[in-house]
Amino acid sequence: MGLKIDLQPMVGMEGGLIRFGSEHALKLDSGAQLHGLEIAYRTYGELNADKSNAVLICHALTLDQHVASVHPVTGKPGWWSQFVGPGRPLDPARHFIICSNVVGGCMGTSGPSSIDPRTGQVFGLTFPMITIADMVRAQAMLVEALGIETLFAVVGGSMGGMQVLQWAADYPDRLFSAVCIGAAARHSAQNIAFHEVGRQAIMADPEWRGGDYTREGVRPEKGLAVARMAAHITYLSEAALQRKFGREMQRDGLSWGFDADFQVESYLRHQGASFVDRFDANSYLYITRAMDYFDLAAAHGGVLAEAFRRARDVRFCVLSFTSDWLYPTAESRAIVRALNAAGCRASFVEIETDKGHDAFLLDEPVMKAALNGFIEAAAQSRGLV
Amino acid sequence: MTTTREDFLEILRLVRPGSRVLDIGCGEGALLEMLAREKNVDGRGLEISPDGVSACLARGLAVVQGDADRDLADYPTRAFDYAILSQTLQTVREPRRVLSELLRIAERAVVSLPNFGYWRVRLGLLATGRMPMTGSLAEPWWSTPNIHLCTLRDFTALCDELEVRIEDSAALADGRKARRMDPARGIENWRAEHAIFLLSRPGAATAAARPIGDLFA
């Protein structure tokens, strides 16, 4: 369809940075437009001749496009290496795997830390408000620019799962199958409440400077770290925290002060401190807001099934975790109920684990078996085997 | 499962090609797969065990983890042509409600169950004074999943009470061909080890309009 784009391959990497001309502004739900959209993405494997093997992975809140390769900032392995790689459910030998940094992110895609092409200044809070649907719209532009009409699968956990649902609602004829893991079709009051704690922590940091910290040469690291600490607790189950730390101390005896006496405190402090090295505070504000605004049913007359009405030919796999209290199984069941009501091909498994929400990032054998079975069977139907 | 269960063959015989089928308690999906292959049905499953669901996923089947007692309410009315409950009714907490749900979700229900009125069962209880264990009721009372066993007469009485029409029925026994029967006859309550029923709601216009064919011929 002749999108005018500018591809900047990153040296030694598959993928790169795609820049859309100003005639291809991203139309946002808020009514605003984002000009000069840039999307940073990674790919693994090769697109086959009939372009039928493309898989889009949608990442969660603080993750990025480095799904199965070493992270350029932290040096850690890709966040979903358990599931993406040779012999894994998503295999570069068979699939062309794409993962892009979401709009509003801070790993190369346009976000509040990017330069506003109109002013030459960092956006900061002048960056427009974004939604999950806006993220998906940008992904659809990327997928189209890569010459792919129909994705074999769209896969994601947590916020990635929300994007998967949005894909099914907005582009049902551009995907063959959809995998939604540990997600929800809307943010609950509790979800919004936790996010608000995080945002307030960031905005209460004097170094936030009304969002203008970059220009002033500072960073609200303390606020962002506290936001991460609070959020991190919601990613784990009580049982997992107890098993990992219990009341274990950092050293013998109490400090009789406010040092990190307990190992769990030290762990959280470390989580917070290392997070600020790889994440931007304003991005955290924008993306958590996008998640809070997410309510797929609301955009369809309050009836979730209506969102999936056009997705009857899509194969859905919905997975949840018994100990996930952030997006509990009831949320996934509500999705499945709506898929059934819409007459979609839905499968659902609740995975028994005590690892909480973060289980979607871990090597859970039951989850791997379910995902593998689903992808294999879908690949057969798609004629990929 | 090495051999195809006789009730599966019966179900396969009676389901209309290309119909929409919900298999409740679909296990590892053997019946659904057979129905998709042989009858080109648009099949869905409901299965309680995650391992069963995973096995179904690997077969390319659309199966939801859930339980008949709780999750049938999630399905819209008349979403299916057939709801199949194979050897499961006697394991649910509320068989009466489940039976009603089947005929809300689907135009017809196919239900198979062991007959507690079967002569070996009666004789076993009479002779030993202990809970009968037969080929189809193989587990001791303390580990059996069968918490709501009934006789053929019990079942037909429940159908009468719920105003459910028994369109057809057959007696089943391991390793033998299905035998069409009239479940109202007292002798069948002695003879049938298992029974399979095709049920519908009387007055359902669509049910009357469509030919049933030779279901248990």
List keywords for this structure.
heterodimer, A: 385 residues, alpha/beta, Rossmann fold, Rna Polymerase Sigma Factor, Chain: A, 9-stranded mixed beta sheet, two-stranded antiparallel ribbon, 11 strands, 32% helix, B: 217 residues, 8-stranded mixed beta sheet, 8 strands, disordered C terminus
Question: What is the secondary structure topology, with strand pairs?
Answer:
The complex is a heterodimer of chains A (385) and B (217).
Chain A: E1 5-9, E2 15-20, E3 26-27, E4 33-34, E5 38-44, E6 54-58, E7 96-100, H1 132-145, E8 151-157, H2 159-170, E9 175-181, H3 189-204, H4 221-235, H5 238-244, H6 263-275, H7 281-293, H8 304-307, E10 315-321, H9 329-341, E11 345-351, H10 365-381
Parallel strand pairs in A: 6-7, 6-8, 8-9, 9-10, 10-11
Antiparallel strand pairs in A: 1-2, 2-5, 3-4, 5-7
Helix pairs in contact in A: 1-2, 3-4, 3-7, 4-6
Chain B: H1 6-14, E1 20-24, H2 30-39, E2 42-47, H3 50-58, E3 62-65, H4 68-71, E4 80-86, H5 95-105, E5 106-114, H6 119-128, H7 152-161, E6 165-172, E7 179-180, H8 186-191, E8 194-200, H9 205-209
Parallel strand pairs in B: 1-2, 1-4, 2-3, 4-5
Antiparallel strand pairs in B: 5-8, 6-7, 6-8
Write up what this structure looks like:
Chain A is an alpha/beta fold. Chain A has 2 domains: 5-187 and 296-381, Alpha/Beta hydrolase fold, catalytic domain (Rossmann fold, 3-Layer(aba) Sandwich), CATH 3.40.50.1820; 190-289, Rna Polymerase Sigma Factor, Chain: A (Orthogonal Bundle). Chain A has helices at 132-145, 159-170, 189-204, 221-235, 238-244, 263-275, 281-293, 304-307, 329-341, 365-381, and strands at residues 5-9, 15-20, 26-27, 33-34, 38-44, 54-58, 96-100, 151-157, 175-181, 315-321, 345-351. In chain A, α3 runs antiparallel to α4 (221-235) and α3 packs antiparallel against α7 (281-293). The longest helix of chain A is centred in the C-terminal third of the chain and has 17 residues, at 365-381. Chain A is globular. Chain B is of the alpha/beta class. Chain B has one domain (6-115, 146-201): Rossmann fold. Chain B contains 9 helices and 8 strands. Classes of the chains: A alpha/beta (385), B alpha/beta (217). At the A-B interface, β10, α9, β11 and α10 of A face α3 and β3 of B.
